[in-house]
Amino acid sequence: MFAVLCCTLSLSAQIAIRGVVTDSVSNEPLEMATVTYLRNSKPILFARTDAQGRFTLSVKGIQNGDKLSASYLGYAKVAVTLDNRRSVSFRLRPENFTLKEVTIRAGRIYGKQDTISYDLSRFADNRDNNLKDVLRKLPGIDVDKDGTISYNGKAINRFTVEGLDLTGGRYNLINENLKAKDVATAEIIEHDQPIKALQKKMTTDDVAMNVKLKPEARDKWIFTLSPLLKVGTPVDNLDVGGHLSALQIGKKQQSLYGVEADRTGRNLSLSNKQLTSGTRTSLEPDTGLPQCYDTPALAAPIDAERLRFNTSQSWNVNKTFKTKGEKEIKWMAGYMHSSTRQSTTNSSRYYLNTDKQTETTQLKDFRLLEDRLFLNLNSEINTDKSYGSESFLFEASQSDGQSDYQKANDSFLHERIKIPLINISNQFYKLMTYEHYTLSVRSLLRFAHSPSSLNVDGDRDKQTTNGWYTDNSLTWLSKLGFFTQSYSVGVNAENVSLHGENRFFSCYFSPYWEYKRSSLTARVGGIMQWKRFPEQGNSFFDTCPWLSLNMKSGYHHEYSFYGQYRESAGDWMSFLLPAYRKDYRTMFTSDGVVPRTKILFAKVEHTYKRPLNEFFWNSSASFQQIGQNVITDMQINDGQYLYHITQQNNHSQIKQISSILSKGFFNLHLKTKLAAKYCLTDAVQSSEGTLLNYQNRQMIIEPQLIYSPSWAEVDYSGTFAWTKSRVKQVSSLATLFDWSQRLMLTRTIGAVDISVSAMHYHNELQLSGAANMLLVDASLVWRTRKVRFEVNARNLFNKQRYERTTYSGVSSLTDSYMLRPREILFNMQCTL
Fold this sequence. Notes:
Number of strands: 48
Number of helices: 3
Helix content: under 10%
Distance between the termini: 82 Å
Oligomer: single chain
Radius of gyration: 30 Å
């Protein structure tokens, strides 16, 4: 009994110290990290973390000055004083480590769990001017023409610099203004969960990118002045423009101010394009205010800068900072004005019946004036226990399109479409974590006003539209072990005022279940929604169940499956008006049937990554079937288009397989990429009550190579597209095989870069043989310590027009475009 009593007293004196060790960047747990108990700087005992990063240490007592340290290979060691604490959380920062005066570093790319880090200083060279120039060299990373960044085939959902989102998803502003010499690393975070309070409770399939700067570039102001002079054809055609920006990037505060003017064909609106949406605030998609008219838009089957004749101006202000309470406050404002001109010729063939082909032609010159002003205010607090955000947006814009169409008697028809729009919205999201559950509230309120008009040779039509939309929901979430469950209830409503009041009301219930182990994540969810259209006298019950499976096989392989069945009712313009005129030759009529859409979608995907070998591979296959209760019947009479929306069940299918392979070669300074996609579409078109089944097949192969040693650069990319479209009741259409290739050669001699680029386009035409066009540009760049001088000569052969044939459903379209003439650009960039 005495021995048992002594043992009991000894056990009762033990104190348990628990905690967790995580990565400070990805917030993922670190397994097998070492946690050591220190007394007088000497280790007393230690423990290893488990798969969830948790540890437990039992000590007899805590003395003043006792410390706990955590260490992990490749991370900075962290030590904290206990001060009678029983729970400690460590967030370790990735760091290079040294051994016997030798710095041990991974390759240019290295990975840890769901985080891939690119050492940008080892990819960049003196030829690179901004962050975008460096990103396009990274294996596994793609930068589209509009600036969208993708990793291993997936577009990123969140973009930050030093952990802050300065531009609210408009990260083109960062990529174009942040200098290549100032960036240190770019981190890709897979399965990103931006809300800290949900990081251990709910997983995502999102991908995020975080860029880190070199210490000497952090927190300092960087000013860039870049005047531009353009000399066109004829030689006396002189234009001036340029860019001025001020940028400051820090961990607690960031600012960006910029102004730009351009007449060289650039689309300045891309800089302010929101490329990531951030945290979603609505379960029901917000489709915006319905519009009767469409202003003319630039058609650009090739590089848009070669087809756009423009005068553009842009101003933008972006600022974000963190308060002492870790609240992030952000405000963004911008204004853009542009005048865009384009001249096109179109010849179309429609296979609408078995008797004959219907042909239409159109010669069009248009000028589009666009103005857009926006102000966006955001407030966000993101801690381990709670999350809150509020966003206010005011946006005023106007599109004014004026078009001249040549008639058969060489006279002209004048059309003008004006679409002003005022949009005001406020979004609110609050999440609170309690001991055993989490509660969140979401709310969205939006108002929009648009007095649009159409004027065709003095015949004026006007439609004024007002719209209110709101969505509000309450969510309860709980996690127990490997299982997470969540339930949301909400209501939303919309009122569109166009020829009377048009409303809908709905309430919905959204369950969510998740099971997550170390290598397997299974998620099941859905939405059950009741929707009422009182003016139309219709009520619907829609469901949207979905299933997601994700399995990791080791570090390199990841397999995923996603399946969804979705029912929806809506699309205002399908039933809102009995008849309306869309443009000078297009009329829409409707039977007033509320459209119902049913979509079955399934996708399987496999991703493979080996960062140390700079190898990334993504392959996927998807199937989508769309069923609708309405169809648009198309008729063409004397060059006039009549679309009648009537009740008719119909189905379409889309099958697609794709693969993207990217490989980098460190010693050769080489990046290679090969993308392939095959798509098969089966759909139906109605003409004069007859249903026409058509099938479209398309295969696209896109190789890419970037070779960039210090003395030269070779940049090659190509697109090879094979297309075949067939209307089953008529006849088979001819197969089109088009391709385009781009090759740029750069020779670096000291501080001078001499470049020549050639673009070759081959297009098979429906009405004649194939068209081939070769465009050649040349440039010279002289780099000094503070100033960069550049001379560009574009379209050296002074090509005038570009032609292309495409297939669209039951039609073949041949278009001709006017190109910008030969031009010489003089640019000087000064950075302070």
